[in-house]
Amino acid sequence: MQNSTAIKENMLDNTVNIEKAKKMEVFEPRIIGFLCNWCSYAGADKAGAAQKPYSPNVSVIKVMCSGRIDPQFILEAFKKGADGVMILACHPGDCHYKEGNYRAVQRHRLLLRLLKQFGIEEERCRFDYVSAGEGDRFVSVINETVEAVKKLGPLKI
Amino acid sequence: MKTAVYFCNCGTNISEKINPEKVEDAVKKSNGGIIFKSCGFLCSEEGKEFLRKDIMDNGIEAVVIPACSPRDHEKTFINVLSAAGVNPYMMQMINIREQVAWVTEDKEKAAEKAVHYINAAISRVNLQEPLEKKEIDVSPDAIVVGAGPAGLKAALSLAEAGRKVTVVEKSPTIGGLPVRYEEIFPNMECGPCMLEPIMGDALHGNASGNIEFLTLSEIEDVVGSYGNFTVKIKRSPRYVDAEKCIGCAECIAPCPASFKNPFNCDMNERKAIDFSFAGALPNVPYVNAGVCLRFNDNDGADGGSCRLCIDACPVGEEVFKFDEKEEIIERNAGSIILATGSALYDCGKISSLGYGKIPAVYNSIEFERILASNGPTEGKIKTPDGKEPQSFAIVHCVGSLDKNHKDYCSGICCEYAFKFNHIIRNKIPSAKIYHLYKEIVIPGKESGSLYRHAAEDKNTVFIRVSDINGMTVAEESGKKVFSISGACGSGGGAGGGEIEKRGGEVSEKISVDAVILCPAVVPGGDMDGLAGILEVVRDKNGFFEELHGRTDVGKSTIKGVYLAGSCHSPMDIKEAMSEGMAAAGYVLSGLVAGKKLSIDPISAVVNQERCSGCKVCIGVCPYKAISFDEKEEASLVNELLCQGCGTCAAACPSSAIKANGFTNEEIFAEIGIMLA
């Protein structure tokens, strides 16, 4: 396996890349979306099954439960160049693991305070609820976040 | 690690949007010429065979499958990997159909996204570990707590399927609440008679050898977990040998000591040695040591010398065991079914209704006993002064639908209230009956009949009251006088259309001889004790909380501890019986004799050397799967109870918990490559 730097170089060579986009002065933000397996990931599938197009700027990382999302993951994403991070969880009371989403929301609130100190705007780190049936909601939450981060411009830290 | 990417075109569903050749080029360049193959339909029989063969032919150790949602075919490919001899946890499926191809308009961007996802998955799968499912031996036996309808049905169903069952019942008799009811809704069946065949089968039927009844017993302690619980049961002495006693009742009449019979709600007396009621099962009397002279007189060498019961016994002295002591009995079981039942909301908490202060103001169980032929009045409706009441107020919704008391409707009170109406009408044809209610709730295909009888009865009056718990009852020369403010409804009335009338009478003050309060159903028994011992969660009303309120009502929050009957929600006998059967079903399908229980390796693991012992993880685990290992001064995950959510791993300040399948390293790798 190659290290990530090598991969990065190859990626830059071979795909439509961010630098190019920036040069063209069209800012395409890179956003990491942490989705829980049971609700929000299924909500994304629902949007897919309905073939509802949405902005491609959010890369999804699946975890079993939003409670698994360690604040370190979010910081790591910003460190590695993400312009935004999303955490999508089951609605209150619907968590497959009963209360993981409550932990996730608590941690998110605390993290926002910390991000502020780093100069990272609140809008760059969105927490929201999407159920397995809410394909439309998934699409609108993604598009809203991408638009909000586009307005803020690239992350400067 | 030899890794391969198997790209599924899904017909044209994926390949139409995401060009496989372009993706292949990009992925191979980023990953040093990694094996990359595409296939028309990887989930088809040909596709699966291609996958299996290719993995085996090339000695592939880790697999990335860009295809549909893992919801569709992750299990399919897990099976293929297993068939190919590769550990199924060495696979990463990427959802480029639902989450890329179908939702990205721009083909270039779709391909770019797919490449990012595949690269991230390759880096991740190389960090994944070949996890193994563990298997443990389990006990197929069960403990049932509570011998009411739900518990009996569960025990009998399990015993008939060949399982050993220990039924732990705190009272001296089995049958639960319905054995106290002479007749039950909706068809006026006799309660004890309805239960008799089930109790008979459980005690003496073909499967009775598989059921052990421990009466006068309570759960003292439980250790272990699903599959292997060790349960300590405290059994209080009965002082009568159930094996030797023939249940002839000769001992009862000579007994000189008596006390208020709790079974009849203290409305009459029973002897120190007695049955709870005529026909109680098991058919063995028990001795109340708090009253019996042998325990409370000091006229003999070891306490009291009274032996009137012994002398009256046709079997002989060996039936009596006055030296019997409290006993701790230990049983092993794989599952525990809680069927501890319910009780009535304490009407004394609504002091304006006069309960406990004014005579002939009964709660519904007291009135059930008055109606029962084996009750304190032998089935004759009589108030404490010995008179037959000529007018009744049956008050529905007592303490229900009221945020100051219980905000729910118990769903059974209206049904038995109309049953009372029917029985009173039969016993006292000229009686005047008022129904004071907030709402009438009579669900079910059979419940219309009793309601209609009451509604069509000339001497029955329905008054709808907006605030049942705000009514006041005063005693005026032997009569119970209701002052109803805020009576409402659709009919005419003194308050300008405020009182609904169906019997032709309107009044805001009504005066009756007897009052029957139908209170909210609340959790019964020692819920605190049991919840504490088993660590099961209780809801805001104190009932045991279901794992899921719709899809898993029979499961508690603790794996292997099931719920049946009204211990988790108010319900009628029919539902309780079904729930007993359902709980038995969980046990039968979950644990099979001779079959080991396999444990999903997607669980949390504590690195005890790294653990600081802060116990944060213990608090966040919703399944009580983490305990503190005092010897190692570190947390320990019970992988049987762990459901793999990973909340503890995120909470651990020392990063000492590994979430198998979703480790920090795996997720960091995904983040890094995704943003590369």
Strand order of the largest sheet of chain A: 2-1-3-4
Mean pLDDT of chain B: 92
Number of domains of chain A: 1
Radius of gyration of chain B: 33 Å
- The CATH topology of chain A is Rossmann fold
Give the overall shape of chain A, derived from the CA principal axes. globular
Number of helices of chain A: 6
Count of helical stretches of chain B: 17
Main beta sheet of chain A: strand number and arrangement? 4 strands, parallel
Share of residues in strands of chain A: 5-15%
Please give the CATH architecture of one domain in chain B: 3-Layer(bba) Sandwich
Task: Identify the most extensive interface between protein chains.
Answer: A-B, 51 and 61 residues
Strand content of chain B: 15-25%
| Spans where pLDDT lies below 50 across 5 or more residues of chain A | none
- Straight-line distance between termini of chain A: 30 Å
Q: Round the mean pLDDT of chain A to the nearest integer and report it.
A: 89
- Terminal Cα span of chain B: 22 Å
Question: Can you describe what's shown?
Answer:
- The complex is a heterodimer of chains A (157) and B (676).
- Chain A has a single domain (26-152), classed as Rossmann fold (3-Layer(aba) Sandwich), CATH 3.40.50.
- Chain A is globular and about 35 Å long.
- In chain A, 46% of the residues lie in helices and 15% in strands.
- In chain A, helix 3 (40-49) crosses helix 6 (135-152).
- Chain A has a 4-stranded parallel beta sheet with strand order 2-1-3-4, sandwiched between helices.
- With 157 residues, chain A is α/β, with parallel strands linked by helices.
- The model of chain A has no long low-confidence stretch (mean pLDDT 89).
- Chain B is of the alpha/beta class and 676 residues long.
- Among the domains of chain B are: 3-125, Rossmann fold; 344-522, FAD/NAD(P)-binding domain (3-Layer(bba) Sandwich); 600-660, Alpha-Beta Plaits, CATH 3.30.70.
- Helices cover 26% and strands 22% of the residues of chain B.
- Chain B has 17 helices and 35 strands.
- In chain B, helix 5 (107-125) packs antiparallel against helix 17, helix 6 (149-160) packs parallel to helix 14 and helix 11 (413-427) crosses helix 12.
- Chain B starts with a strand and ends with a helix.
